[in-house]
Amino acid sequence: RSQSMGRAVVGLARRAIRLRRTFTTISEEASWPGLSPGFAVDKFGQKGRGIRAVNGAKRGDVVVDLEPIVVLQRDIEMGLNADPMLGNAEVSELVQLCKSEGIRFPAMVLLMASQSLLYEQGFDAYWTRVYRLNHATIADEMHPVYMRCHMFTMQALFSIYSEKKLEEFLSATYTARWFARTLNTLHINAMRCPETKDTVLFETGSMFNHSCNPNVIVEWEVSENQVTRAKFRTIRDVGEGEECTISYVHPSVSQKERENTLGFGYGIHCRTKCDCKLD
């Protein structure tokens, strides 16, 4: 695999500057994969982007149907097992460090860094898909915690890919700011599959805003205990121009759990009456 990887990354170093420029110039006009006709990604005031039923929708209509950008299995996320693509990377040490510092998704960032090097449509295309999504604010100066966790991530990557030219490319492209940007993108876009406990990142699927009274549910497709696809389907009629929403938390959780998950995970402070279970 080392030789094929070496051939695959020839010339990548020369594209590092162009790639970083791409991160800040993603076209809003690009199509959204898996989005059914009659629905559109639109802006909804202070909530930002969401999905609108342009002409309305009937109960049972599929709004979005697509494969995920990346799937991280639960045991890998916990540092208990190794993903074949990550080889002998010190995932466990990275996970434990970030966990102690309160940083989520480090193993997923590492997996994405590795996947993007072999992405069929090209390295730039992979990160264009990721960075058109919303992300939390990034400070001008990286916090020392991010710098330390970024260093561990790079050490893990170098343990997988030892080619000199590739190491130069990784160092130039996968900077501390890239690390923080990717973590912050996952922080507000990654989803958890209730059945497998996989952490999943979708492109168009990330455009759904939360509602405690959603009109769309997620139907997960699983093969060999791993998420392969998802359909976002309406559970009632949706009015013309109405926003399509999902719930970011399971309906069975208590009110306190709901508030903690929405507040910590997404910065959402719910002020509406909902049917969630009371403590």
Please, could you describe this protein's structure?
This is SET domain-containing protein. Residues 37-249 form the SET domain. By secondary structure, this protein is α+β, with helices and mostly antiparallel strands. The chain folds into 2 domains: 2-26 and 77-191, no CATH class; 39-68 and 192-266, SET domain (Beta-clip-like, Beta Complex), CATH 2.170.270.10. The protein has helices at 2-8, 16-23, 74-77, 91-100, 106-117, 123-131, 144-160, 164-173, 176-189, 255-266; strands at 39-43, 49-53, 62-66, 70-72, 191-192, 199-201, 209-210, 216-223, 226-234, 243-246. Strands 1-2-10-7 form a 4-stranded mixed sheet, with no helix packed on it. The radius of gyration is 19 Å and the shape is globular. Mean pLDDT is 79; it is low at 1-18 and 20-28.
Main traits of this protein?
single chain; 279 residues; alpha+beta; Beta-clip-like; 4-stranded mixed β-sheet; 3-stranded antiparallel β-sheet; 10 helices; 37% helix; 16% strand; globular; disordered N terminus
> How many structural domains are formed by the residues?
2
The major pleated sheet works out as:
4 strands, mixed
What is the helix tally?
10
Order of helices and strands: HHEEEEHHHHHHHEEEEEEH
What helical percentage do the residues reach? 25-40%
Radius of gyration: 19 Å
Q: Strands across the major sheet, in which order?
A: 1-2-10-7
Report the uncertain regions.
Answer: 1-18, 20-28
The number of E-state strands comes to 10
The secondary structure category is alpha+beta
- Portion of residues in beta strands equals 15-25%
Gap from first CA to last CA: 53 Å
Which quaternary structure do these chains form? single chain
What general form does the structure show? Answer: globular
Mean pLDDT: 79
